[in-house]
TrEMBL record:
Gene: wblI
Gene Ontology cellular component list: cytoplasm
Annotated organism of origin: Streptomyces clavuligerus
Cited function: Acts as a transcriptional regulator. Probably redox-responsive. The apo- but not holo-form probably binds DNA.
Protein family membership: Belongs to the WhiB family.
Name the UniProt record assigns to this protein: Transcriptional regulator WhiB
Keyword tags: 4Fe-4S, Cytoplasm, Disulfide bond, DNA-binding, Iron, Iron-sulfur, Metal-binding, Transcription, Transcription regulation
A GO MF term: DNA binding
Annotated localization: Cytoplasm
Positions of [4Fe-4S] cluster binding: 35, 65, 68, 74
Length: 117
């Protein structure tokens, strides 16, 4: 990316360095992810993928996740964003929706219990 600088009547191009990932946003965990060495197609479905192929691909992606040292961080990232597609932290999008729904129910129950006390 270039940034234009108007220091004189002539225009000069000054290269702009990309900002490093913020730790509170993406964090450095992704640099250790095992999936960085695998093809992204394993973790994201092609359009109109047959069910049997999708299940097989998701299981293969989950096997990669199972050996990943940052599985927990990846899963939490996907739940907090929330990531709507793909296998993240060993969970499919549908499985993440279940986890999020469960967390919402637990939060509601906790708030009810706290207000009753």
């Amino acid at each position: 990316m270039l940034q234009l600088s108007y220091q004189s009547p002539q225009v000069t191009a000054v290269p702009v360095q990309r900002a490093a990932a913020r730790e509170d946003q993406d964090g450095p965990w992704h640099t250790e992810a095992v999936c960085r060495r695998d093809e992204a197609g394993l973790f994201f479905a092609p359009s109109k993928e047959p069910t049997a192929a999708r299940l097989s691909r998701e299981e293969a992606a989950k096997r990669v996740c199972a050996r990943c040292p940052v599985l927990v961080q990846c899963r939490e990232h996907a739940l907090l964003q929330p990531e709507p597609y793909g296998v993240w932290g060993g969970l499919t999008a549908a499985e993440r929706r279940v986890v999020l729904a469960r967390r919402r129910r637990q939060d509601i129950e906790l708030k009810k219990a706290q207000s009753a006390a």
